[in-house]
Design goal:
It is a single chain. This protein is α+β, with helices and mostly antiparallel strands. The chain is built from 7 helices and 10 strands. It has a single domain (9-76, 83-269), classed as Spore Coat Polysaccharide Biosynthesis Protein SpsA, Chain A. It is 27% helix and 22% strand. The strands form 3 sheets. Strands 3, 5, 6, 7, 8 and 9 form a 6-stranded mixed sheet that branches. Strands 1-2 form a two-stranded parallel ribbon.
């Protein structure tokens, strides 16, 4: 649920035939070679999600639902028994462990990544083994909102590999440009990752450490970028950085929706997408 958006933006129509941003992600992933879609949702959204989202994919791609619940934690890991809110994006991926037995991608359901991004990730995953992962990076200047500030994970990259991700908050267009806080050329994480099932062991270890320190914090979240950055810093994983040629766009604020509508309309006019994704 997007608190700044004021609703469930993942199912808000933005395409000419009522498509959602998530529909374009599924369409791009399937044509890049992904064979199955696993959706991590809250259990109370199941009925709405099945009717509004899953029904349209029937016969087009295999789908599976996974529920992210606050009580789904590593055995023996301490946590506040009264907490209802799930534990963040790293926890969301870990909750899908039983549904994934081969290389897989991870996305946000409300971000538009573009066909090139999925094609690059699919190419990497075809040969992915062990604890060798990937992230698709986007140029910071292409990920900003006209309607407010954003937080971005800025990637430090050496020789094509991720060294660390630093969460930078309250970035606005006035902060980006020559001589300003950011140049705009920085690669940032928009949570488009490629993993093998080996990642679940690393996430579980990270969650145990996280919960040991912050189980009683009702606002604490186990973020995926921080978890993977920690694995890299400890030498437990390597992450190849794939720079996308696409211009990312997403819906952070309700006012962003107009820009997304216009961008998709232009892509349809150029023939990048059909006017109706799922006839």
């Amino acid at each position: 649920m997007g608190s700044r958006y004021g609703g469930l933006k993942q199912i808000d129509p933005v395409g000419p035939s009522g498509e959602t941003v998530l529909d374009y992600a599924v369409f791009d992933a399937v044509r890049a070679g992904f064979g199955r879609a696993v959706f991590v949702i809250r259990r109370e959204l199941e009925e709405t999600f099945r009717k509004s989202v899953l029904a349209k994919y029937s016969g087009r791609v295999a789908v599976e639902l996974v529920f992210q619940e606050a009580g789904d934690l590593p055995p023996g890991a301490g946590a506040d028994a009264g907490r209802q809110k799930p534990w963040g994006t790293g926890h969301a991926v870990w909750c899908a462990r039983a549904a994934l037995d081969g290389p897989f991608g991870v996305i946000n359901a409300d971000d538009f990544y573009g066909a090139d991004s999925f094609a690059r990730l699919a190419g990497f995953l075809r040969n992915a083994k062990g604890s060798r992962y990937a992230i698709v990076g986007f140029r910071l200047a292409r990920t900003l909102s006209e309607n407010g500030t954003v937080s971005r994970g800025v990637c430090r990259v050496e020789c094509g590999r991720l060294v660390s991700i630093t969460e930078e908050r309250a970035i606005g267009r006035a902060d980006v440009g020559p001589g300003l806080r950011f140049s705009g050329e920085e690669l940032v994480s928009m949570n488009l990752w490629g993993f093998t099932p080996d990642v679940f062991g690393g996430l579980e270890e990270g969650m145990r450490s996280f919960l040991a320190d912050r189980a009683g914090d009702s606002k604490a979240e186990f973020y995926l970028p921080a978890a993977i950055s920690d694995l890299v810093s400890r030498g437990s994983a390597t992450v190849e950085v794939l720079a996308s040629r696409e211009e990312w766009f997403g819906i952070t604020y309700r006012e962003d929706r107009g820009r997304v509508l216009e961008a998709i309309r232009a892509l349809v006019a150029r023939g990048v997408y059909p006017a109706r994704l799922f006839p």
